[in-house]
């Protein structure tokens, strides 16, 4: 039994890939990032026991820069 061989396309290559991303492919990761960022920056009131002060300082700086 012989296998079929694939022939090359007669259309010339354009040099660009035709790639379209659906709207939710950008919207959902962006929404998830924003929600997680809000959860992290909004939790500075409920500080866990033994948390590192540098992390709290970093989150305060991020929140301050976002509120400008």
Describe the protein's architecture and organization:
Helix content is 50%, strand content 0%. By secondary structure, the chain is mainly alpha-helical. The protein has a domain of 35 residues. The chain is built from 2 helices and no strands.
Low-confidence runs: none
Structural class: mainly alpha
Q: What is the radius of gyration?
A: 25 Å
Main beta-sheet annotation? none
Number of strands: 0
Short account of what is shown:
The chain has 68 residues and is an all-alpha fold. The chain contains two helices and no strands.
What topology does this entry show?
Elements: H1 23-42, H2 53-66
Question: Which features characterize this protein?
Answer:
single chain; 68 residues; mainly alpha; 2 helices
């Amino acid at each position: 039994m012989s296998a079929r061989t694939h022939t090359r396309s007669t259309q010339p290559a354009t040099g660009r890939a035709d790639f379209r991303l659906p709207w939710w492919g950008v919207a959902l990761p962006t929404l998830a990032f924003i929600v997680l960022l809000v959860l992290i920056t909004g939790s500075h009131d409920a500080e866990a026991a033994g948390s590192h002060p540098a992390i709290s300082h970093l989150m305060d700086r991020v929140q301050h820069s976002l509120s400008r």
